[in-house]
Amino acid sequence: MKKIKISTTINSKKYYLDINPNVTLLDLLRDELGLTGTKRGCEIGECGACTVLINGEAVNSCLVLAPQIDGKELLTVEGLMAEGKLHPLQQSFMDHDAVQCGFCTPGMLMSSKALLDENPNPAEEEIRTAISGNLCRCTGYVQIVEAIGKVNK
Amino acid sequence: MKPFEYISTKSINEATQVLSEYKQDARVLAGGTDVLIELRRPHAKIPKAILDISYIESLNGISESDGLIILKPLSTHTQILKSDLVRKYAQLLGIAASQIGAPQIRNRGTVGGNVMNAATCADTVPPLIALDAEITLRSNGGSRTMKLVDFFIKPYKTKAESDDVLIEITFPKLPSNAQSAFIKLGRRNALSISRLSVAAILMQDKKGLISEARIVPGAALPTWMRVKEAEEMLIGEKPSLKLFTAAGQKVSEVMISYTGRRWSTEYKEPVIGVLVRRALEGCVKD
């Protein structure tokens, strides 16, 4: 199988990669690049644990073929912290006890990051829509919705 | 995933070239929300090549020209639901797009993929058929245009040849006296697959009488079509609960005449009627 050359930006760092085409973006991030903050859940686009941003849009990395990130700009949960400080969303999740087992948290953070970048003061309904593709089996969502809603307040 | 060759192109001509060479051995990849799941299925039939068309810029975007809306196949569900043109001239299509999957799926999944994959539950198809959409396919041999309603043979089977690329979907703008609705019934709200859906368009004349009606059920019939028997009942009439209920019952009868009675009929028979009624009511609000 022929390898594919791609160039991409992940968390503001430029990558030039030689990859097998038959891997998903999720596999590439976790197994090749060691970015294991992005979680492997259902792998059929239903749980949202693998959510990352491509050009600012939330996507399921399990449903993106790795070569399709050529020329694109990605953000994973590892890219949220800046200058040694937690991203306001991360801080808010902690302040509101929006994390229990933590497995859904990276995906939740990325979906809500996409929302807040577009709409800094979303209504509760908009928050619930934005995270509708992210399953959490611990919290019941209430604290997560609160955490997202309070970030810019 | 088993190995395959990955081919990416930025030109439609190159895409049709590759497809004419590989025929059934190539699979077209756009947003990937269906294809990736298929490729990873146990015992999946892995194609020799994956042809990635997602970088063909001329296949993306929503525009208008001469009273037509031109919907390029790589337009994502998110693009559709955010489009001012869709909101203004094809409201039911925007409603359908907004209810597909979740944001992550809507950001990747494309209208072209929805049409070409031809799943019974494809939510953009009933609105597009109600909008009287046409599609244009291109292969090495040239282009051909057909009505979308004539494109489907059965679930997951269309008239597209293995070397065809869908290059355009067009439909006339709805006039200002038209109102439209799309109602979907899933097992839950988020991330749900349509069990049944109804796309409806009504136009009323100055006296408030119905001058045109289009009703297209989704996931109800072997393939999509307008239910003319029910539409005709509405023409020249004044909208009323009684009329819409009767139209719903007619759609239900027509559905059973095609599908016969099966395990799901006990449920679908009354429910499709109610969905039709609600969709029609949604077309006469304010």
Structure characterization notes:
The complex is a heterodimer of chains A (153) and B (286). Chain A folds into 2 domains: 4-79, Ubiquitin-like (UB roll) (Roll), CATH 3.10.20; 88-150, [2Fe-2S]-binding domain (DNA polymerase, domain 1). In chain A, 30% of the residues lie in helices and 16% in strands. Chain A contains 5 helices and 5 strands, in the order ββαβββαααα. In chain A, helix 2 crosses helix 5. The longest helix of chain A has 14 residues, at 105-118. Chain B is α+β, with helices and mostly antiparallel strands. Chain B has 3 domains: 5-52, Uridine Diphospho-n-acetylenolpyruvylglucosamine Reductase, domain 2; 57-172, Uridine Diphospho-n-acetylenolpyruvylglucosamine Reductase, domain 3; 178-282, Enolase-like, domain 1 (2-Layer Sandwich), CATH 3.30.390.50. In chain B, 35% of the residues lie in helices and 25% in strands. Chain B has a 5-stranded antiparallel beta sheet with strand order 4-5-10-6-7. Chain B has a 3-stranded parallel beta sheet with strand order 1-3-2, covered by helices on one side. In chain B, strands 11-12-13 form a 3-stranded antiparallel beta sheet. The longest helix of chain B is centred in the C-terminal third of the chain and has 19 residues, at 241-259. The mean pLDDT of chain B is 95. Chain A binds chain B through residues 1-2, 4, 20-24, 43-46, 48, 51, 57-60, 62-65, 67-68, 70, 111, 114, 129-130, 132-134, and chain B through 1-6, 8, 29, 32-33, 36-37, 40, 50, 52, 54-55, 78, 101-105, 107-108, 189-191.
